[in-house]
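Subject: Interface between my chains keeps coming out wrong

I've been trying for a while to get a sensible model of this assembly. When I model each chain on its own everything looks fine, but I need the whole thing in one frame so I can look at the contacts. Pasting all components below, labels as-is. Any help appreciated, I'm running out of ideas.
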Amino acid sequence: MSETRRQHQPESILIADCGSTITKVVLIDVVQGQYRFVAYAEAPSTINDPWDDVSVGTVHAIRQLEATLGRTMLDADGRLLRPETPSGAGVDRFAAVSSAAHPLRVVLAGVTAGISVASARRATLHTYAEIIDTVTLGGTPGSSALRSGDDLINAIWHASPDLLCVVGGTDGGAWGPVLELVRNVVRVALYLLSQGLPADDLPAVIYAGNATLRNEIAELIEEVSPVHVVDNVRPTADVENIGPTAEEIELCFYERQLKYLPGGNVLRGWGSPVVLPTARTADYSLRYCAGAWNPTKPALSIDVGSANVALNVCQGGRPLTAVRTDLGLGYSLRSLLDQVDMADILRWLPFGLDAAEARDRLLNKALRPLSIPQTREDALLEQAVAREAVRLVLRDLVPSWLGRASANEGDLVIPPCDPIIAGGGLFAHVPYHGQAALLLIDALQPLGTSGLYLDEYDLLPTLGAIAQERPLALVQTLRSGGLSFLGTVVSPAGRGQAGVTAVTVRPAERDREPSFQVAHGTLRLIPHQTFALGTALELLPARGVDVGAGPGKPMRLVYRGGTVGLIVDARGRPLPTEAAYLRSRIADWLSEIRT
Amino acid sequence: MLYAECFITPLATIYRKRALPVPGQVLCGYGDQVASDRVLAEADVAMGYHLLDLAYDLKAEIDDPSKFLVKEIGDLVEEGEVIAQRGKILRRECVSPVKGRLVDARRGKVLIETTPEHVQLRAFYPGKVVNVLPERGATLEVTAALVQGLWGTGHELRGRLDSVVSDGQTALSAERIEVSHMGTVLIGGRTLGQRALEAAVGNQVAAIVVGSVSSALLPAIDESGLSVLATEGFGDFPMNDRAYQLLQANVGHETCISPVIQPRWEVRRPEIVIPLSAETQPPLLEPGAQIEPGTWVRATRVPYQNLVGRVALLPTGPRHLASGARAPGAIVDLQTVGRVFVPFTNLEILR
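Reply #2:
Try treating it as a single job with all components included. I did that and got this:
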């Protein structure tokens, strides 16, 4: 059979996602002429000591899959059998993604800590990167102290970053400070690094500042190091253009970190030509979802992992990503706790927990990232942490996504999205779907009507690995129910007196029963078997309340069911976040949502 | 299956890697028997640089700095020493702000490298070199008792093991710490508080090993500079009996304590290595143990956190937890609570 012909044959596909804590494997196969999700298995990741090889964990996960299915996929030496044999052993294709590689260590260099550096920071959020220092002629962000030229040079030299990203100035604008920065700081630091490091270990350099200076800057830097010149992150004061810089940073992450994932060569030997970044493959899948689900609304995915939290949005064909490598429910939990007030976490709990004890528990979780909550209290504590982590990432994405600052809670209210897909270790092991739904609503606070999905089997990032070569497998697998549909959430805009009806939900036809009144300040679940699937529902908002059609105007909604059901969230946007209010109400909300 | 493991072992052969943070010169060879204070490798670690603006200091346009330098490139310079000057009557000078070396001069600027720090990497563990790491150091084979903990802070150090508690259940009392404990690695029982911490610092104790510490005490521990190792992590948990008994049995021995812990992207267990001699080489400790009926395990999460017991049964399929989630696991006879189901993810094998 020719290779060209074979590419069009349906085939079995095994995809591995090597996370920092858990390695997941997903088997996709053809059932009755359609690609279907067949099985999922997981094993502890083995990127760290004593294994230092992600393929070990991958083999263990595949062995689990073999035990579940009674199907042979590996030979006796742990090598993947390819292609699938007539007897059904092995698989035809293999692909791998990973979020386990250490993040790219980035130093940002700019004239001031303001506009361009802020844009460059947003560009680094596009992939697994960690800003280890920011050197500016005008002081360090968050600090009033000015650093001398020597301090700036030594900061870069001591950091010895993987990437140095230089920004500053608008196109055609002032050029003196940018040249001063490059001449007297960047170039000297690179020269010093070049004296002690092999050429391969020198930082990559990106220049994304004033375009007028491109040639001059390139000439100056190339005396000591190669430089990639890309479009200015701030061509004018009010226009941000982080795309080219973000792409260059992601390429750098791949070339410097992911390519050298310990054990990645074994996975490539199994037929995965490259190991792709998980956040990027999730983005590929989400782009499909954005087109196929509801092209009028943005699609959003959130991945809460052990070492990272990633948020992807695709709106009008425009994808956006924010990855925070300093937030997570395992390895990054300690740095998360450094950024979030414990009182803000505890306000989401329906029971009292001493702040010191909560910190002890969470720090122990950071030391044992593989462990899962055994009690309801522990599960709710981790979910409370996740709410705050998602809010932090949302704060990073809102300026690029919605074009507004994210200074206060009101700025973080997001438009209706469909789908909203939740994945990652926390969601994969969430005890109740209702808890996942409430967490998503509390953390993201979408307005209007949104569809909530749970990616329990890691399909979004894994299927994204084959999105380019096997789009049909992606489309058919997601359409055939690979994701768990939790339900629909309707979140009206407009506030009113507590206890007074904000929205009435009833069937649009026949006897219009049963009817549900949802009062201001409350959240109500209309359980999943209340109406037949496809029933047309009518949403009747009170005066001044907007369910999506305009203040006071009714709207129709097709009932889509879901494992949780239809949730009407009349608690208001932004959700009041005073600790006393949340702590007094969270038990009711959890109870309402049947967890 | 892969499971978490914790080594609390009275006698074993272990390998430990010793490496410089920067490239340097290796001073040992394969097969060498090394004492703990033997230098395995050394390097000069640059400490920083200073960029001096000659044009500013000499108040002149300077195209070619060499015309004004009174030192050559590569010369050593003292702090305050003149490195460039202009004029005779109204003389302008540029002086080095540090002791170091003049490394470059161009475009009106001069670069001084601060005197590098000479770093020596010592063996730390007595043992045999079984692998030389070019430019970095060596891997050592060590015969020792090993106690792995869960959390630690401070520096690696050696000291005589001593004890001031009669069990692992009792918190360390400040009154029990005396000047005779100076330089020792002290077994501290269940946990330590502010007063015990202050007493340990006051009596120059080298390190303390306890069951657990409260995270509320972390700022004080960090400030104290004391090396602390907690076998059970954060909170208020007694030291597990295995660890306590093994440490107690080795009181008086020289001990290597490595409280170093957690680079952010991995969890490295802090440990106490007690070098011992053996007539025959004990077995090599390797990961990969399996959970079977009879395996000693420790539960890692509430409500059974840090309780130790033996696996009784391995039920097939996942079971419901109190949280509502389902997970595969084992039935374990845990001390004090009896027979309970614990998910595999929340168990670690004690070896």
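Reply #3:
Confirming on my end. Chain B touches chain A through 48 residues (CB under 8 Å).
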